[in-house]
Write a structure and sequence with these properties.
The protein is an all-alpha fold. It is built from 3 helices and no strands. The longest helix has 67 residues.
Length: 108
């Protein structure tokens, strides 16, 4: 082989080996940094969603406590959600209040 070809190959190897090594190390570091950043973002989103869900659950628990502590409200809600039993209850409550008329008059 001629000397200028040997020198060209030697300079290419001397220049390319460190360049490839540095490129591989930089790629690996960038990949790890991007992965860490994505995981941190996902973690912060999860924390925010957890707080939202806990807030909704707390609101529903407060509403449930209000409904369970208020007997009249609980009874009304039971009647609203059970319309069949509501009709029977209304009729059962109305029967004792009915009094037969003393006299009947027929107008012709």
């Amino acid at each position: 082989m001629r000397i200028n070809i040997r020198l060209t190959l030697a300079f290419l190897l001397i220049g390319l080996v460190p360049l490839l090594t540095i490129s591989i190390l930089a790629f690996s570091a960038a990949k790890g940094a991007l992965k860490d950043e994505a995981l941190d973002h996902l973690y912060s989103v999860a924390v925010i969603q957890k707080a939202r869900i806990e807030s909704v659950i707390d609101k529903y628990l407060e509403r449930l406590a209000i409904v369970s502590s208020n007997t009249e409200l609980r009874t009304t809600l039971c009647q609203v959600y059970n319309p069949v039993s509501n009709k029977h209850t209304a009729l059962g409550d109305a029967v004792p209040d009915l009094h037969p008329p003393a006299t009947l008059t027929l107008i012709t």
